[in-house]
Design the sequence.
């Protein structure tokens, strides 16, 4: 899922974007002036993308009336500039997501191309028990479809379980689950990855050094992801764990099953996020009812804040709001958190008490951000990584899938700007990616090979 | 085939384009999106033309050399025509986008002009075309082997790199010319672009007689460059002033 993020202010005083410690949770948005919101509430937002409108969107769709309460309207003086800025923001958001998605894919493709370990077949996960080593095509297809059914059912069951946990407020359980899965990713998988990279490049490393590196990497990662840390570091860690997860999938999913699973999961994503009874939609609505933020540790957020002028906001008023945030962390195991998996929920605006009027002078320029779930990163990278690993056309196919996924992401963000509600980020990109993978591998590759053979250029 | 060949060919083929990207496109998100969308359109055109060629090849006798050669020529020409058709479609899309951008902005001007979009679209087409031609070669250049050991040309990698570079430039200039022709309803400009593209692709049939393909392509590139420069508002005086300003040390005031 992909959502707009209104702002992610730090809980403490606003600092420079470079120095602020971005809390992993989405902090409450200080409501600027309720009166200002009310006046805007009635405006028709149909074809004019106003920043306020867009930022209010996640709430609008879920609960109509509460749009006024929490939405921050920054400076009324900036309203006129907002019109033009909105589209610039729109394009900027796309780039803010292009960069991490590209980085994740680059890491995955570079690893696949250099480290042999991730392309060797060493067994399968228990979620895909049927082997694809059968001689006949029909049997292989059947096995991959069965694998897909099992995998998707596991995911559905886990999602429903998670929704139930969330509904019945078993926050500690979710919290513990989430911490356990990040621990596994940050320590165990990183250890394996580092080991394989060192083996590939024939670099010797002693255990004490290894322990030191892994310990530091993992500990800082846990802090950054689950608590507070510099935004860029948090983003980097999220990209790294997505890449690690994608590599695990690429290694352990058999060939045909991987493609069928990718297709099935985008369909599931579509249904889970958009259908009224879909688990993710229910999760979103429950979170919005409770005015709780969405899963901090499983979403990549691209928000930044800049402040000009340092009037300290009224932090005391924000105090009681904080408690609800810590508890609201939703946990889903990373390794089976598809894009929809809870991680993308629209930012809920919590009705924070208004700031004192003195803060009107404060020139706080906040950049809206977009949130993309880690599951999206993982499955995009799985697609591109699989293309890099298995396509005989090598780099052309990888490049084609990469461009297709980026365009899909761009279209999804366009739809997000139009519909202003949480949307599944997988379907369009994965569809384009799959179409381009199979067509480039089977149609374009022979053509380009023949052209290269004769050194012809088109 | 060593690292030197790899880096050399990469920089020859993609260096200028990368410089263009870095200095004119990378800072503006809207332009990056237009670039990637342009690359996507080129990709779709390639897909469709490969589909046609593939069907034709599968439907024909694989042992008939002459027929296969003929089909290849047909494939190349058809691909060129399809690329230009998709350039036209992209122009239509960008026109609509500009109208949308104008409607959304407060003062009625879009943040980017059609000429800038033409340039970025051209770079997008060029980069994708160059990447598809060159990347597999570069990957092979890293591995072991001897170029031309079976009697083929030893300059294969080098000439491919130069050809890729000239194609990227050509696509950029063709983008400008094409969009200008579409904007001002000058059909002869569009036909000139198509004719140039066909000529460049046709000249590559002379390979490995590189003098027959590289020299005409570079000449055509110079022509297209001058033409695009004139269409974008440049003139001999502008150029002179630019060069003189540089010599005198003052920063030149160039219109975009």
Sequence:
């Amino acid at each position: 899922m992909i959502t707009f993020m209104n702002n992610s202010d730090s809980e403490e005083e606003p600092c420079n974007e470079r120095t602020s410690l971005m809390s992993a949770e989405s902090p409450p948005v200080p409501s600027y002036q309720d009166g200002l919101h009310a006046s805007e509430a009635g405006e028709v937002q149909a074809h004019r993308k106003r920043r306020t409108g867009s930022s209010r969107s996640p709430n609008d769709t879920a609960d109509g009336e509460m749009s006024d309460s929490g939405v921050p309207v920054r400076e009324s003086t900036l309203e006129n500039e907002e019109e033009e800025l909105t589209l610039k923001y729109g394009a900027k958001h796309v780039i803010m997501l292009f960069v991490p998605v590209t980085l994740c894919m680059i890491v995955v493709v570079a690893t696949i191309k250099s480290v042999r370990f991730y392309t060797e077949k060493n067994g399968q996960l228990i979620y895909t028990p049927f082997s694809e080593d059968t001689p006949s095509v029909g049997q292989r297809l059947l096995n991959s479809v069965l694998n897909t059914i099992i995998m998707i059912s596991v995911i559905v069951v886990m999602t429903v379980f998670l929704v139930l946990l969330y509904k019945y407020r078993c926050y500690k359980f979710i919290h513990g689950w989430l911490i356990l899965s990040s621990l596994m990713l940050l320590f165990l998988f990183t250890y394996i990855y580092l080991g394989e990279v060192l083996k590939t490049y024939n670099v010797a490393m002693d255990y004490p050094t290894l322990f030191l590196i892994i310990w530091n990497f993992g500990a800082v990662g846990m802090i950054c992801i689950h608590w507070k840390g510099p935004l860029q570091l948090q983003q980097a860690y999220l990209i790294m764990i997505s890449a690690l997860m994608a590599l695990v999938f690429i290694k352990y999913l058999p060939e045909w099953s991987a493609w069928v699973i990718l297709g099935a999961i985008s369909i599931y994503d579509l249904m889970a996020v958009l259908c009224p009874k879909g688990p993710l939609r229910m999760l979103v609505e429950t979170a919005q009812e409770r005015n709780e933020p969405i899963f901090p540790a499983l979403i990549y957020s691209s928000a930044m804040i800049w402040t000009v002028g340092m009037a300290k906001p009224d932090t005391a008023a924000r105090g009681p709001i904080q408690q609800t945030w810590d508890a609201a962390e939703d946990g889903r195991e990373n390794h089976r958190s598809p894009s929809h998996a809870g991680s993308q929920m629209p930012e809920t605006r919590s009705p924070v008490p208004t700031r004192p009027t003195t803060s009107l002078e404060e020139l706080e320029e906040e950049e809206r951000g977009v949130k993309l779930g880690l599951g999206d990163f993982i499955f995009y990278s799985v697609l591109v990584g699989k293309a890099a690993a298995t396509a005989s056309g090598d780099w052309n196919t990888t490049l084609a899938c990469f461009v297709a996924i980026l365009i899909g992401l761009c279209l999804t963000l366009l739809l997000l700007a139009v519909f202003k509600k949480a949307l599944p980020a997988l379907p369009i990109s994965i569809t384009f990616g799959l179409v381009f993978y199979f067509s480039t591998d089977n149609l374009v590759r022979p053509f380009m090979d023949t052209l290269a053979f004769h050194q012809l250029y088109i | 085939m060593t690292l030197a060949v790899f880096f050399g060919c990469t920089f020859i083929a993609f260096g200028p384009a990368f410089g263009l990207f870095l200095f004119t496109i990378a800072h503006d998100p809207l332009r990056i999106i237009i670039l990637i969308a342009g690359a996507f359109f080129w990709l779709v055109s390639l897909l469709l033309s490969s589909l046609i060629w593939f069907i034709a090849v599968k439907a024909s006798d694989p042992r008939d050399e002459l027929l296969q050669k003929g089909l290849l020529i047909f494939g190349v020409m058809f691909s060129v025509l399809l690329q230009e058709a998709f350039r036209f479609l992209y122009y239509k899309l960008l026109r609509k986008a500009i109208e949308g951008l104008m409607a959304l902005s407060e003062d009625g001007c879009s943040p980017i002009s059609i000429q800038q979009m033409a340039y970025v679209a051209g770079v997008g087409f060029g980069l994708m075309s160059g990447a598809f031609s060159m990347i597999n070669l570069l990957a092979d250049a890293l591995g072991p082997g001897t170029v031309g050991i079976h009697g083929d040309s030893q300059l294969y990698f080098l000439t491919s790199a130069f050809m890729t570079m000239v194609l990227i430039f050509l696509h950029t200039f063709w983008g400008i010319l094409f969009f200008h022709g579409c904007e001002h309803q000058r059909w002869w400009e569009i036909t000139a672009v198509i004719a140039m593209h066909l000529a460049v692709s046709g000249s590559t049939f002379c390979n490995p007689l590189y003098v027959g393909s590289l020299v005409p392509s570079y000449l055509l590139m110079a022509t297209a460059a001058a033409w695009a420069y004139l269409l974008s508002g440049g003139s001999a005086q502008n150029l002179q002033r630019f060069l003189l300003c540089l010599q005198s040390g003052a920063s030149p005031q160039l219109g975009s």
About this structure: The two ends of chain B are 42 Å apart (CA to CA).
